[in-house]
Write a structure and sequence with these properties.
four-stranded antiparallel β-sheet; 2 helices; 33 strands; mainly beta
């Protein structure tokens, strides 16, 4: 095996092979990759053999001492291990951050059964370590000793990375470190392997996806592949953890978790490439551009220059085992809301348009028989007009009959954000109903 290497340096070099084995035969394409340990699989590495690379400086060699022959000369990928260098002392100017002496105890390995290390987060004097299937913490500049009863006691020591202590529960961050977001002592991340969204705080790990969204995240995270994105962000403006589940086929779900209500409050229409908070403002990035959220200069619901409507879905299910006829749909809040859907398991109602201000007698006549919300004492009311297809073998009903029949009803309120540049509020929704007589 031979190769010609043209180096424009007056120095001597070591040649080291990177991670893969060279095919048999002479080397016809020798790629010189200085100081690049992320080179391609067929490249070699040229490493200087003189101290500081200076001309005629001291040559580094193994010397006349006993050493073992390493059969496996390729570089190793220890995905479950940590290593640290020498120190940097700003007072004396000593910089040993490029020194990794194998003669010193500078490595710390975690259980390989829990997968590779995906994320490190430094917090005070502890290091939080996120593996694929486990979350642990390592003590920094101190170690832990245990009493006869098994209780840990912290003591100072010379170790840089001390005792590794695992958090309770078989939770990890899978291969999605981009889902990590932090605020104060609370750290949020996803575990795609188990279909969970998790919070790590001073009380340990909590499954926040269980707050009414367990089935949703179980199904959606199961669809996320290794080449897809689970983007986690902290929204400082609204104090929410925002997570965006993005599939490679273009589908996505962006939603937020609020600690104050202990629940998932909203689905959003935007699909960011990245996001973060700065000085109580929330920013996201899209196609190389930065966007400031909650800006007063654009319409509410406008993301990345596209107007989106606000949608609120509600379910009416009073007297669960009783068949009811829902006669009206009502709400308290801002004017401008409309109902695009109101349906039960059997019936469908006609849409209800938004309230229109009455200024003249003609406006009153036009709205008298219109299927729209009517305002009374700052509340809005509308009748439900049944538009279900007539049935056979039973009482026939149609468009002339008011009310929809069913045990429960689902309604969708929509606000056209492009029409007004202001906030739209929806305090409460309700429906007047009676027990069905047939």
């Amino acid at each position: 095996m031979a190769a010609i290497l043209e180096l424009k340096f007056f120095n001597s070099f070591w040649l080291k092979k990177l991670d893969t084995v060279v095919e048999s035969g002479p080397i016809t394409n020798f790629d010189f990759v200085p100081n690049d340990y992320d080179a391609g699989p067929t490249d070699w590495l040229a490493e200087e053999a003189r101290i500081r690379g200076g001309y005629n400086n001291t040559n580094v060699d193994l010397g006349v001492k006993a050493y073992i022959v390493e059969d496996n000369i390729n570089q190793q990928h220890r995905k479950n291990s940590l290593i640290y260098s020498g120190i940097f002392n700003s007072r004396t100017g000593v910089n040993n951050t490029n020194q990794f002496s194998v003669g010193e105890d500078i490595t710390k390995s975690l259980d390989p059964y829990n997968g590779s290390i995906q994320k490190l987060y430094s917090e005070n004097t502890n290091l939080t370590i996120f593996q694929e299937f486990k979350v642990s913490r390592a003590l920094i500049d101190k170690d832990a000793i245990y009493s006869a009863e098994g209780e840990p006691m912290t003591t100072s020591g010379s170790q840089v990375i001390g005792q590794i202590q695992a958090y309770a529960g078989n939770y990890g961050i899978a291969t999605n470190p981009e889902s990590f977001a932090v605020y104060g002592y609370r750290k949020y991340f996803t575990d795609r392997n188990q279909g969970l969204v998790l919070r790590l705080s001073q009380d340990g790990i909590t499954e926040v996806s269980e707050y009414g969204m367990s089935n949703f995240f179980r199904d959606r995270l199961a669809e996320i592949g290794d080449d897809n994105l689970i983007l986690g962000m902290w929204d400082m403006h609204s104090k929410e953890y925002v997570v965006s589940l993005q599939n490679s086929n273009g589908t996505y779900n962006t939603l937020a978790f609020d600690e104050d209500v202990q629940g998932w409050t909203s689905f959003f229409d935007y699909k960011p490439n990245h996001g973060d908070s700065l000085r109580n403002n929330f920013y996201t990035f899209k196609n190389g551009e930065i966007w400031k959220h909650y800006s007063k200069t654009t319409n509410w619901g406008n993301f990345y220059g596209v107007n989106n409507n606000s949608i609120v879905e509600a379910v009416f299910n009073p007297e669960v085992s009783t068949v009811k006829t829902f006669k009206t749909v009502n709400y308290e809040g801002s004017g401008g809301w409309e109902v695009t859907d109101f349906y039960t398991e059997t019936d469908i109602s006609a849409p209800v348009s938004k309230n229109v201000g009455i200024l003249t007698l003609g406006d009153m006549e036009a709205q008298l028989f219109a299927n729209s919300f009517k305002r009374k004492e700052d509340k809005y009311f509308a009748n439900l007009i049944n538009i279900s297809n007539p049935t056979t073998g039973e009482i026939v009903w149609g468009k002339s009959m008011s009310g929809v029949k069913g045990m429960f009803a689902t309604t969708r309120f929509v606000y056209q954000n492009a029409t007004l540049q202001k906030r739209a509020e929806l305090f409460a929704v309700s429906s007047e109903y009676i027990e069905s007589s047939y």
